[in-house]
Amino acid sequence: MEIRKYWLLLGIGCCCTGCHLLHPVFSKSTPSASTKGSGATPAVSVSNKKNSGSSTVSVRSLPASSLNNGNSGQLKNESVKPLGFRPSDQFYLLQEPPALLQIKYAILLDVVAEKLTNSSLLQVMDTWWGTRYCMGGSTDNCIDCSAFVQILYRDVYQFPLPRTAREQYDASELIDKDELKEGDLVFFHTTGRRNAITHVGVYLLNNKFVHASSSIGVGISDLDEPYWKSRYKGAGRLKSQI
């Protein structure tokens, strides 16, 4: 049975601050007595970290048979394994079964879940999700944009990147916006000297990118949001990957 993104999206409330929709943060709900032992995976609730309870998306319990022929939480018999070292941990702890991560990020990216095939990327994003931003930070206490991109590339693509946004820009081959695909870098000018490269994120799908920003911490934004659209400076693909 195909997993679709359209599963019972209920009660999406308005949670705008000014003109910006606050980014939701997902959390597992406690399985009820009716789901324990029934072969169903727990429901997933979506709440806003900055204004808990103001926005909710519910995903009903899914039959375990819909996930890899009864193997709940697994995709294509792929075993869950550590992804690499995080500054304060020995390895990433999987916060959700892979199938639930597909559902979560399909909702955020507004795509069908089957398009999200890189389970390592989903796990790393979910581990760092909501980590607050701080200039020069590189730990799970706080992190800046280029450190987050550097760590994501290390743990998902096993590719070493330089530390700063400008250095990452210089290490990339510039590509057109309509050529963007998963893993490409997107660059912005947000502060300082005119036209300086001061911010970087990793492109995902459907015009969305993941990054660490001062407003939301680690989260997902859209390239067409007015703030990012006006500050967009280009996209790059690592030269050795072209």
Protein architecture, described:
A hairpin with a 2-residue loop joins strand 1 and strand 2 (20-21). The chain has a domain at 130-242: endopeptidase domain like (from Nostoc punctiforme) (endopeptidase fold (from Nostoc punctiforme), Alpha-Beta Complex). With 242 residues, it is an alpha+beta fold. The strands form three sheets. Strands 6-11-7-8-9-10 form a six-stranded antiparallel sheet. The protein has a three-stranded antiparallel sheet with strand order 3-4-5, covered by helices on one side. 19% of the residues lie in helices and 20% in strands. It is globular, with a radius of gyration of 18 Å. The protein has helices spanning 98-109, 119-128, 145-157, 165-170, 226-231, and strands at residues 16-17, 20-21, 24-28, 44-48, 57-59, 172-175, 185-188, 199-203, 208-213, 217-222, 232-238.
Present the secondary structure layout.
Blueprint: E1 16-17, E2 20-21, E3 24-28, E4 44-48, E5 57-59, H1 98-109, H2 119-128, H3 145-157, H4 165-170, E6 172-175, E7 185-188, E8 199-203, E9 208-213, E10 217-222, H5 226-231, E11 232-238
Strand order of the largest sheet: 6-11-7-8-9-10
Q: Count the helices. How many?
A: 5
> Which architecture name of the domain at 130-242 does CATH use?
Alpha-Beta Complex
Euclidean distance between termini CA atoms = 35 Å
SSE pattern, N- to C-terminal: EEEEEHHHHEEEEEHE
Shape: globular
**Quaternary state of the chains:** single chain
What percentage of residues falls in helices of 4 or more residues?
10-25%
Largest sheet: 6 strands, antiparallel
Q: Taking Cα atoms only, what radius of gyration do you get, to the nearest Å?
A: 18 Å
At the fourth level of CATH, the homologous superfamily of the domain at 130-242 is: endopeptidase domain like (from Nostoc punctiforme)
Q: List low-pLDDT spans.
A: 1-94
Q: Report the CATH topology name of the domain at 130-242.
A: endopeptidase fold (from Nostoc punctiforme)
Please write the CATH class name of the domain at 130-242.
Alpha Beta
* β-strand amount: 15-25%
Whole-number mean pLDDT: 73
Query: How many β-strand stretches?
Result: 11
Structural class: alpha+beta
